[in-house]
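Dear Dr. L.,

I hope this message finds you well. Following up on our conversation about the binding site, I have prepared a predicted three-dimensional model of the protein together with 3-methyl-2-oxobutanoic acid. For your records, I am including the exact sequence and ligand specification that went into the calculation, followed by the structure tokens. Please feel free to forward this to your student if that is useful.
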Amino acid sequence: MVEKFREMKRRGERITALTAYDYPTARLLDESGLDIILVGDSVGMVVLGYKDTTQVTLDEMLHHTRAVRRGVKRALLVADIPIHTYDTPEQALETARALRDVGAEAVKLEGGLSHVPQIETIVGAGIPFMAHIGMLPQSVREEGGYKVKGRSREQADALLQDARAVEAAGAFSVVLEIVAPDTAKMISASIEIPTIGIGSGNECDGQILVTHDLIGLFPWFTPKFVAPEANVAEQIRKAAWGFVDRTRRG
Ligand code: KIV
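The resulting structure of the complex is given below.
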């Protein structure tokens, strides 16, 4: 099921991925021919109104994964393992199984070399795994913001080690979040599994975005690297104003 992504990389075909958290969005994205739909823990920020992803619970991820499952027929459905539910390999496996039981076909957690035992345990149990290195949103508080990774030689070397470690541990792909484009390019050329970039330049093997950023549905904050394709927030405002106006005028 996930072997095809390595083959896509070999053939030089770019992999497309977006997030979804509900049935209609998942169904619309699936019908548009995307390769991967991620139930990201970004749900905490763009749907649940939390400040960051550090408050997202497993129950919330299960709830949204169930909804997305109902809308996805052909894309690979990946679900995020939320913070504090993968502190040990055993806990990571329990969480991965819970997400798989509600319909996720693969799972993702944040971390490279430091999380090899968790990754090996998940993969060893037959659950496909997508890695996530670079800027790790679940660590945003410790990091003091969403900062570019891999600018210095030391950081680039550390990221390459992370990428090699997750590949060796059995990940079928790796998300590179806000990694300096040259470093993302170097990592993509150094491993055989595809890199899926977010804010990491054009030279990754695929791209992923938070759908709300792409369609302009979270107008209070748009990351610098996103070029929105639509302004859905404005459409919602206009529709609501139209309704309020027509109703009040009778
Ligand atoms: O939570 C998320 O949406 C993500 C990405 C966009 C990579 O992890």
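In brief: The chain has one domain: 3-248.

With kind regards,
A. P.
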